[in-house]
Amino acid sequence: MRDMKEIIINEVYLMGMVNRHPNIIKIYGVTKFKDEPNYSLVLEYADSGTLGKYLKNNITTFKWQDQMKFANEMASAILCLHDNEIIHGDLHPSNVLIHQRTIKIADFGCSRLHGSVINKKEKPYGVMRYMDPKILKDHSYDLTKKSDIYSLAVLLWQLTSCKLPFESETDDDVLKICIINGKREIPIKETNDEYVELYQKCWEFEPKDRPDISEIVSTLKSINSEKNKTIKSEENEITKELENDNLSCQIRNY
C-alpha cells in the first residue's frame, strides 16, 4: 500500500484543483483526531446525504425537471474534472451527495490525473454495477475518462428509475458476466427519447464508442427540461426488454 500521507496529499491536491465548482464538494482542510491513526478531510456539509438515499426518500416527488437538473449538474461537475485532466474513477450514488437540492460530487480517493501511472495491485475498481465493463473483463485495462462516462450513464438511468441498477440480481458473478456481454438496464417507460439515447451511447462496451463529456453536456442542455417528450412506441420498448431478457438467459445457460 502507498503511504497514507501520499494518498491524502493526492486527494487534497486534486480536490483543490476543482474546489470552486458548485457541483463538487468543497474541501476546507485536513485534521487528525487525538489517538486516531488516520487523517480526516474537512469537507462541505451535504444536508440530504447521498444520491441513493435522496432518490429513495423522494421517489414519488422526483419528477422530470428534477431529473434533468441533477443530470446537468453531474455532467457539469465531470466536465470540470475532465477539463482539468482528472479521472474520478469511482462514480456511484454513495459518492454523489445532495446539499439544498444540488449535486455535489465527492470522494476523490480513487481519482488521479489522466495519464498517471498506477501500480496494478493498487488499482481501484469501484462499485461493480457502475464500473467500466472493459475493466470488468480485462483487469489490465486502465481507468480513463471514458470510464467515468460509463458510470455517469448508469447514474443517468438511475435518476429516471430511483432504484439500484439490476436490483433483483443477487448473484454478482452472474451479473458481471451479463454486463461484460452487453446486458444493460431497460429504459424506464415514458422517458425522453433523446435522454435514453444519450445514456445508451454512454454505456457502450467500447470506450471509443462513448461520447466525451463535452458532448454529453451539450446534448443535455438541448433536451427540454420542462416536458418529458417521448415518441417511441410501446412495442419498441417491449422488444428491447425481450432482447435484454434473452441475452441474460443465453449468458446464464452458457
Distance between the termini: 38 Å
H/E series = HEEHHEEEEHHHHHH
DSSP strand content: 5-15%
What is the total tally of β strands?
6
- CATH homologous superfamily label: Transferase(Phosphotransferase) domain 1
CATH fold-type name: Transferase(Phosphotransferase), domain 1
What general outline do the C-alpha atoms trace?
globular
The average pLDDT value, as a whole number, equals 88
Spans of at least 5 consecutive residues with low confidence: none
Strand ordering within the main sheet: 1-2
Q: How many structural domains? A: 1
Counted by DSSP, the helix tally is: 9
Rg computed from alpha carbons, rounded to a whole number of angstroms: 19 Å
> Class by helix and strand content?
mainly alpha
Label the CATH architecture.
Answer: Orthogonal Bundle
At the first level of CATH, the class is: Mainly Alpha
